[in-house]
Write a structure and sequence with these properties.
Blueprint lengths: L2 H13 L4 E2 L22 H15 L4 E5 H4 L7 H11 L2 E6 L18 H20 L4 E4 L4 E2 L7 H16 L7 E5 L9 E2 L4 H11 L3 E6 L9 H10 L3 E6 L16 H18 L6 E4 L8 H20 L3 H9 L3 H13 L3 H11 L5 H8 L1 H14 L7
Parallel strand pairs: 1-2, 2-3, 4-6, 6-8, 8-9, 9-10
Antiparallel strand pairs: 5-7
Helix pairs in contact: 1-10, 2-4, 2-10, 2-14, 5-6, 6-7, 8-9, 9-10, 10-12, 10-14, 11-12
The chain binds manganese (II) ion.
Length: 396
């Protein structure tokens, strides 16, 4: 690798960070069942502890996304405990995720529920979540809605849109100056006929109507299979409406597979859109990179190390695209030349440069190997196995 390329990789490494989710360390499953792992985290302290292992070994995940219902069961009263854990484990509390889908009362929706008392309850929970975020100095409140319907004719789609607009405006009014409200979209599941916020256009319109601190969150698993996600990213960038990402990979639906396990080139193309935008503006894009994965079969900490190091590697490859030459090739309609700049960057082995960077920062050259040799997994397996064996649950 020549020195100019090495410099680009180094620059990418110096700024790359990605948030990991608390729920990625807990036992989760599919609708068919949960395969319990003996080492899975069950308490918020265990989640902080496991997440801190990933950051300790990679240096690129300084914050942990929190889920209000699962991680702050006492709501605002749990803030002190989270602050304590953040200090103990050296992990910042990251985005705050309200839960508007698990309570039985949300059977027919939250912000889109025909019952006003339930819409109000959902709004109160979101306002509490914003207050929690403020208490934790968390910047982003990340909204995902399971709202939708399963059968034609059973939901008033336009009316529900108005209810969403109303409540999202009310949420936005609660934000402090620096906070952001992210609106995530998903075309189906759990609803199978219509989802209230089904795509980026709907999320964009709702974010615009909510207020200037509302942005769109792109979860890479929340698209139809053939959709061109990097184009959506490019449009949201050009509208200055891209707030953040939930990264994961998939083959069929919203599979929550390890990032880059199926289509690493797509991740490359997404990162390139962002880096190209930044280069043109000579300014960093203010975008939150987050992982949204929970692994049913892989060991959770290993899966997270694999995920974030993959994200880091692909980000470095995307940073290698020579955008000046790319612009030139595009202007000359040199299609092969332009595409080759992508392919060459993607094919470049950036691993030796990353290992050197890790070395220079005091991180292990191979974080996975270091984790396997650390003994941490054995220790937590011994500590947690008996308890976890007693909590196998079924979805049926
Ligand atoms: Mn998500």
């Amino acid at each position: 690798m020549d020195s100019r390329k090495a410099e680009r990789v180094y620059g990418a490494l110096e700024r790359f960070a990605i948030e990991i989710p608390s729920w990625g360390f807990a036992n989760t499953g599919t609708r068919f069942g949960k395969f319990s792992q003996p080492a899975a985290a069950a308490t918020i302290e265990e989640k902080f502890s496991d997440a801190s292992q990933v950051h300790r070994l990679t240096g690129i995940c300084p914050s942990i996304a929190l889920h209000v219902q699962w991680d702050l069961p006492a709501g605002l009263q749990s803030v002190g405990e989270i602050q304590r854990l953040a200090r103990v484990y050296g992990m910042q509390p990251g985005s705050i995720n309200p839960n508007l889908f698990q309570d039985q009362r949300y059977k027919y929706g939250s912000f889109g529920n025909a019952d006003k008392s339930i819409r109000d309850m959902a709004l109160r929970h979101t306002k509490d979540s914003i207050e929690i975020a403020r208490g934790l100095h968390s910047r982003d409140i990340s909204m995902w809605f399971a709202d939708g319907s399963n059968y034609p004719g059973t939901a008033n789609i336009r009316q529900r849109k108005r209810w969403f607009e109303h409540n999202l405006r009310a949420c936005h009014a609660e934000l402090s100056a620096g906070q952001r409200l992210f609106i995530e979209y998903k075309p189906f599941e759990p609803a199978f006929y219509h989802t209230d916020i089904a795509d980026w256009g709907m999320a964009l319109l709702l974010a615009r109507s909510a207020g200037p601190q509302a942005k769109v969150l792109v979860d890479t698993g929340h698209h139809y299979l053939a959709q061109n996600i990097e184009q959506i990213v490019a449009w949201l960038l050009s509208e200055e409406m891209l707030g953040g990402f939930h990264f994961n990979d998939r083959r069929y639906a919203d599979d929550d597979l390890t990032l880059g396990s199926i289509d690493p080139y797509q991740v490359f193309r997404i990162f390139h859109e962002i880096l190209y935008f930044e280069e043109e503006r000579d300014q960093r894009a203010d975008i939150a990179f987050m992982i949204d994965q929970s692994h049913n079969l892989k060991g959770k900490i290993e899966a997270m190390i694999q995920t974030v190091t993959m994200a880091q590697m692909i980000f470095c490859k995307a940073a290698l695209v020579d955008n000046a030459s790319l612009a030139e090739a595009r202007d000359k309609c040199d299609l092969v030349g332009a595409e080759s700049l992508f392919q060459d960057a993607f094919a470049t082995d950036v691993r030796p440069a990353i290992e050197e960077w890790r070395d220079s920062k005091g991180y292990p050259r191979d974080p996975m190997m270091a984790f396997r040799e650390s003994g941490y997994l054995n220790r937590i397996t011994n500590e947690r196995a008996e308890r976890n064996a007693g909590s196998v649950s079924s979805y049926a």
